[in-house]
What does this fold into?
Amino acid sequence: MTPDVNMDDSTRKGIRKTAIILTLIALAFYGGFILMGVLRA
Amino acid sequence: MSSAVADAHADHDDHGPVKGWRRWLYATNHKDIGTMYLIFSLVMFFAGGSMALIIRTELFSPGLQFVIPSFFNQMTTMHALIMVFGAVMPAFVGLANWMIPMMIGAPDMALPRMNNWSFWILPVAFSILGSTLFMSGGAPASGWTMYPPLVLQTGDAFPFLIFSVHLMGLSSIMGAINVIVTIINMRAPDMTLLKMPMFVWTWLITAYLLLAVMPVLAGAVTMLLTDQFFGTSFFLAAGGGDPVMFQHIFWFFGHPEVYIMILPAFGVVSEIIPTFSRKPLFGHDSMVYAASSIAFLSFIVWAHHMFTVGMPLTGQMFFMFATMLIAVPTGVKVFNWTATMWKGAMTFETPMLFSLGFLFLFTIGGFSGLMLAIAPADIQYHDSYFVVAHFHYVLVPGSIFGLMAAVYYWMPKWTGHYYNESLGKLHFWLSTIFVNVTFFPMHFLGLAGMPRRIPDYSTQFADFNSIASVGAIGFGLSQLLFVYVVIQCVRKKGTVASQEVWDSPRGLEWTVPSPAPYHTFETPPRISSDTSFS
It folds into this structure.
């Protein structure tokens, strides 16, 4: 969406919630694999 | 499911692009960003292709002719990194940017500023990677797999390699988040998940794969960095570390990466074959389940890349059979594409030709993959030219042909003009002939024992290497024709395209004018309950 185009509140909240969850998943994979390396080393 | 709504401010329909460089640097429009991704990937395709031609020129005949071995190794490494991360992946992200909002009836991607950022990181990443060619010790030369301890012998380029890989990963993760968030939250009302077109479905699955495995690659290269500069020993045997652990982590990323590069091509072909067969896609839902199964299985087969490191027999058996299992959902897809064409009123425009080329030649790559999955046989084939033949059949007439098909299919929608059909067909036939001349002899070379990643070889391999080099030069030159066709189309030299472009295609993208307006679907389209888009 071009930043100046409106969307309804529920869509905006849904976007924010999904984006945060996905970011946390990515960080968990990154941290998790490094932690695995640390525990194995 | 919810969706975007029409803007309360009345005048947004009139917003055109900003003039000049600001339009591109500050771009938030999905079509502009999609265009930038596609242009960037084309430039990278030629940069990586030039390196391939250096490799093939050196290998034209036995002995060292043109380059020294260390530079040859740099070329193999850079060719792979550029083609994987700079050409194929960004090209599919470009298609996703252009097409996903239009196919699901959304006004744009959900996170437009992040979209801008994820694109502009890429030129920076590849400038850094390219600059390593001029550094002391040269560019990385350990292969794109970056196995330690070899990669730790890289000269000044090492930290730049790690940084650029981090940036590429960051860009991909942000792109993946954007795709998932858009598809989950911004579909048109009544477009349920199983009504989504296959291209959107395959991209949704691809985005989840990206989200899961790009951080794993980032973790692996972060550990390489700390091993080199901060005294850790994750992968250094001398310090109690395990170099084989890197291979496990790398291929946990690397095998899903293969599907990241092919699943969107499956989606493209699933759009094109129904259009030119004038029939709906056979077994839409089973295609979705097959793509999902392939994605799941891609996480449990990684060690088939490393049978020769030594692993318990049960491990070899597990990874062998799990790998073979992928043939089942892949077979479902090939069957469904064939069934879609069955008794269809088929025509053979360029996108259809590339899709059929994909179908035949990708299947050859799939079959050689099955051969490589057999653990005892793989010990013979490992690190030979047979492997090079296999993955190039998957990636060139697979991913690249899928991309070419997509560009020819949607270019009239993007530009408002048809491309030159005769030249498009010529491009297809030249590409198909030369891709086989290049890569088919590599099967024989590998089976005869020629190892990969070497600049010189025994004279018994000379004939097939000469043929492969001629094919590579032909394939490279053929792609200049593609550039000419695209430029002619962008410059509006062809016939004006109608709104539908093709003969009754399915999908929301064909309900907007050609060329697609700068803003589309600011008001969500209405979809009837029995409408299917595949």
